[in-house]
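Side project, low priority. Logging it here so it doesn't get lost.
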Amino acid sequence: MQGENHALMFEFPEYKEKIHDMKMADSAFCRLVDEYHHLDHRIRGLEMAKIPTDDENFRNLRMRRVQLKDEIYQQIIQ
């Protein structure tokens, strides 16, 4: 769904506290989460404002968000 909020607190509500703790303890994890947050915000902004973007660019942005989400999840469950 376009404009849907994919913030990590909605994607992984059961890990909200763990994500916070990991961000405080691990600067690399914090950067990963920040990249995810900024990318999600950018994607939602494009969707909500209906800003023209070529399909390949938009697809690449969304794919990167999925990759980041997967990487974050893998680190959370370790």
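Brief comment: The two ends are 30 Å apart (CA to CA).
Revisit when time allows.
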